[in-house]
Amino acid sequence: MKTLVLLLSLAVVPLPLPAQMPGSDATKAQREEMKKLDFLVGRWKGQGWVEMAPGKRETFTQTENVQSKVGGLALLVEGRGTSKLPGSDQEVTSFEAMGLLSWDEENRRYRFFSGTTLGRFGESEGRLVPGGFEWGFRTPQGGRVRYTIKLTEKGEWHEVGEFSRDGKTWQQFHEMTLQRVD
How confident is the model over 41-58, as pLDDT tens digits? Predict the structure, then answer.
């Protein structure tokens, strides 16, 4: 009976695997890949626009808070957009998003898990592009959305969102430029 209790106890106790140990080659490789995204870390604020229907462009103020977490193995990204109520100077939250960005060493790719106040949750694949980072996903209606963040010569976060039905022709629906505030 004591042997059975001991075996059951060991079955529920998580044991670290060598690839998960803090100094392992896998975690070193993950940290090295994540360091390539250090340019995103910080608090950012600025202006942008989104066009959800042709000719109906809305402007907003956006903040992004990007923090390095779990010893440099992930980035926590929190975004919040505010807009003025029609006919008023009152600012209200119009959009919130949160994401966790990490490097998948086994599949050699960036993974971005995110959720928004629009009720969209999912995983996207990301990649480094010259001067920045790009990620995207397929839409339920068909087509693809991609976002590209690049730092400008002034050190600003410049982001463009685009949509494509065929993966070849892209139409911009979003743009924002943020300045580092912290």
Answer: 999 999 999 998 888 999
